[in-house]
Design goal:
Number of domains: 1
Shape: globular
Number of strands: 0
Structural class: mainly alpha
Order of helices and strands: HHHHHHHHHHHHH
Largest sheet: none
Length: 267
């Protein structure tokens, strides 16, 4: 495992595009999360000026609700990571490093495993970034810190890792299938924003719910925050075992199809 990671890291280490995109992703996430509370504070100030009675302050970052909120919002940015994964896998075909690895004695499964480990590290890095942001903002916006508040709902971080990893295995599959970065990225964006939405519209609800994007996104539902409760809205505030199994099933499917393509196709 370590050997495969080292092989992949050597390829990534000098890839300036990869590090620039990862840096932009981290910067985007940080700026977005640190800007939400300022927007809510301004919104509350404007509302209080027009309201005859004082309105309660709205905090998006009080512990332990912050973990559910952050991972739910961060889930919308995973498309950015999907593009990065596609660039990594299509570079293997463009520079013929996949053929060189196989000729040098690496099996096709070893090659795929190295990519699965790499996207695992990317998913872990994204999760750690959310963890650090959550700790900073949660401590700042929570009046009294207790062990229960600090670590309550942290299971959503594990769910976020699984959601991100599952989506990146889909991106990996598309990259292996198409081989060209421009076409692969276009296909990913087309499927993510248009194709599945159209398919869900025409399919029965019982089927559309289990399509990949919807099933993976359903793992983490809209947060039940104080803001939502203020309007009397309730959503699923736990991680469903059934939803988890469905996502794991998709991971197995995407990995299996990726291996099948690698095994059958000339490199």
């Amino acid at each position: 495992m370590i050997k495969l990671l080292k092989i992949d890291f050597k390829k990534i280490r000098g890839n300036k595009v990869f590090w620039i995109l990862i840096g932009l992703y981290a910067l985007l996430i940080i700026l977005f999360f640190f800007g939400i509370q300022g927007f809510l504070d301004d919104l509350a100030d404007e509302a209080n000026k027009k309201s005859p009675i004082p309105l309660p302050s709205l905090s998006a970052y009080s512990l332990p609700d912050i973990w559910h909120i952050l991972v739910y919002i961060a889930g919308f940015f995973k498309i950015f990571l999907g593009v990065i994964v596609i660039i990594l896998i299509t570079n293997e075909y463009s520079y013929k490093t996949i053929r060189q690895n196989v000729v040098s004695g690496m099996s096709r499964w070893d090659f795929l495993s190295s990519k699965l480990l790499t996207i695992g590290m990317i998913s872990l890095g994204a999760t750690i970034l959310v963890l650090i942001i959550g700790l900073i903002l949660g401590i700042i916006h929570t009046d009294s810190i207790t062990f229960g508040k600090l670590f309550g709902k942290t299971e959503f971080l594990l769910a976020y890792f699984l959601e991100t990893y599952a989506f990146l295995t889909l991106a990996l599959l598309i990259g292996i299938l198409v081989k060209r970065s421009g076409f692969a990225i276009g296909l990913l964006l087309l499927y993510y924003y248009i194709v599945e939405s159209v398919a869900r519209y025409y399919l029965p609800a019982g089927i559309g719910t289990y399509l990949p994007k919807k099933a993976i996104g359903t793992l983490i539902d809209i947060p039940n925050t104080s803001i939502m409760r203020l309007f009397g809205v309730e959503f699923q505030d736990y991680i469903s075992i059934i939803d988890t199994l469905i996502v794991l099933g998709y991971v197995a499917l995407f990995v299996g199809l990726s291996y099948w393509i690698l095994k059958k196709r000339d490199l």
